[in-house]
From TrEMBL:
Keywords: GTPase activation, Leucine-rich repeat, Repeat. GO terms for biological process: nucleocytoplasmic transport. GO terms for molecular function: GTPase activator activity; small GTPase binding. It comes from the Eukaryota. This is Uncharacterized protein. SMART domains: LRR_RI. GO terms for cellular component: axoneme; cytosol; nucleus; perinuclear region of cytoplasm. It comes from Ostreococcus lucimarinus (strain CCE9901).
């Protein structure tokens, strides 16, 4: 079935659509779910406006479903209008997803008019709904009076400066929304500056996602100034893919060092380079709250990595560090390995494609012998070769009480390295390793068989151990 709507040949000229018998059966199933279960997944069913209008009655009389996903259904203005009319009689729904529907600005306006008076919905997903500045302005007006929405997602739309400026004005008044997601729009420098100014007055926001908005250095600086001035800090900030360079480093440092709430910070795929990384690292000496830092893909070299390693020696809050796609080289790898060896509380460290080479592999082989916290280590694409892997294998075969996941993909490993890993697995039947990834290397069937047999032998010796090798 292609969908609930078909066009009879004789009716095509009038563009009148009818709902087929089979489609009605499917629609009734959806309506039945709305009346019976709390969480309804009606996504991707090609309802269209006609199907949505058909099931709208079920929303009006629903007193069970609290969460409904209607994403990817081809819903436009007509469908969302029917839905909003029905929701006026609904007392139950709190979470609604209309993601990946072509609502456009007109559909957003209809929804916004309804949300001005709605007192039930707390979470609304409008990702990829073709909403531009006019639709964003309408949503912004709704936020000025709405007192129930706590989570608003508008990722991957077409919101430019005017729309983000309107949302900024709304957030200067709104104290209810805790999560604002605007990733993948066109906020830019001016929009980020407007949001930064508005957030100074806002007391409700706790999570801000602005990934991929090209806010640049100036936008980042203004945003940091606004966030730093808040009495009530946020706990999650995503500024990845925003063309942020080292010039914004001091602003990031000044904001982060005094923040007492932020636990998750994403700066992935910017251009912070060594100086920007050093500024962020300096803030980690004072900041004792950040648990996850993603600073991958920032063109960070050995100097930046060394500064980060130095800062982490006195930091016990960071448990996840994403550093992949930075050319930190052997010196950077050694510095971080030395920190992991005896300091900090890092649980997860991802360092794929960091050019640490086999010498960096030697350093981490030594580090995992002593680390009491590192459970996940990603060393993909680092040219470790058989020698680097053999060093890691030696550590795994002797001492391995913490490390559970090791990724060695894309490291030019041959059978010699595979044999070393296989022997290590046999030597440590009670080890903690659960997942070993060795995909995209140069193993022949002999290397694969050696590892497979080693796993089988260990599982015979220790039936409670669950070990998986990914080739």
């Amino acid at each position: 079935m292609d969908g609930p709507v078909s066009v009879a040949p004789k009716q095509q000229q009038q563009q009148k659509k009818i709902i087929t018998r089979e489609a009605k059966r499917m629609l009734r199933d959806v309506m039945d779910e709305l009346r019976r279960v709390q969480t309804v997944d009606a996504s991707g069913k090609n309802l269209g406006d006609e199907g949505t209008c058909f099931i709208a009655e079920a929303f009006a009389y629903n007193n069970v479903a609290t969460c409904v996903d209607m994403s990817a259904n081809g819903i436009g203005v007509e469908g969302v209008t029917a839905l909003c009319e029905a929701l006026k009689c609904n007392d139950t729904l709190t979470m609604l997803s209309l993601a990946s529907n072509s609502l456009g600005d007109e559909g957003a306006k209809v929804l916004a008019d309804y949300l001005k008076t709605d007192e039930k919905i707390t979470t609304i997903n409008l990702n990829a709904c073709s909403i531009g500045d006019e639709g964003a302005r309408a949503i912004a007006e709704a936020l000025k009076t709405n007192t129930t929405i706590t989570s608003l997602e508008m990722n991957n739309n077409m919101v430019d400066y005017e729309g983000s400026g309107a949302l900024a004005q709304a957030f200067a008044q709104n104290s209810t929304v805790e999560l604002l997601a605007l990733s993948g729009n066109y906020v830019g420098t001016l929009g980020a500056a407007a949001l930064g100014a508005a957030f100074k007055e806002n007391t409700g926001l706790r999570s801000l996602q602005l990934n991929g908005n090209d806010i640049g250095n100036e936008g980042c600086i203004k945003l940091c100034e606004g966030l730093a001035a808040r009495k009530d800090k946020i706990n999650n900030l995503d500024l990845g893919n925003n063309s942020i360079g080292p010039e914004a480093g001091p602003a990031l440092r000044d904001y982060l060092k005094d923040d007492d709430a932020l636990t998750h910070l994403n700066l992935y795929m910017n251009e912070l380079a060594n100086d920007g990384c050093a500024a962020v690292a300096e803030s980690l000496k004072d900041n004792k709250k950040i648990e996850l830092l993603d600073i991958g893909g920032n063109n960070i070299g050995a100097f930046g990595a060394e500064k980060l390693a130095e800062a982490l020696r006195d930091n016990e809050s960071l448990v996840t560090l994403e550093l992949g796609y930075n050319p930190i080289g052997v010196p950077g790898g050694k510095a971080l390995a030395e920190t992991v060896k005896f300091h900090g509380k890092l649980n997860t460290m991802r360092m794929g494609w960091c050019k640490i080479g086999k010498e960096g592999g030697f350093a981490f082989a030594d580090a995992i012998k002593y680390s009491s916290s590192l459970a996940v280590l990603d060393l993909r694409g680092n040219d470790l070769g058989d020698d680097g892997v053999a060093a890691l294998a030696q550590s795994l075969g002797v001492v391995n009480e913490v490390l559970t996941n090791l990724d060695l993909g894309y490291n030019e490993i041959k059978d010699k390295g595979a044999f070393a890993l296989a022997q290590a697995i046999k030597n440590n039947a009670d080890g903690s390793l659960q997942t070993l990834s060795i995909n995209n290397n140069y193993l022949t069937k002999f290397g694969e068989v050696a590892l497979t047999e080693a796993v089988e032998l260990v599982q015979e010796m220790n039936a409670d151990r669950d070990l998986y090798v990914q080739f």
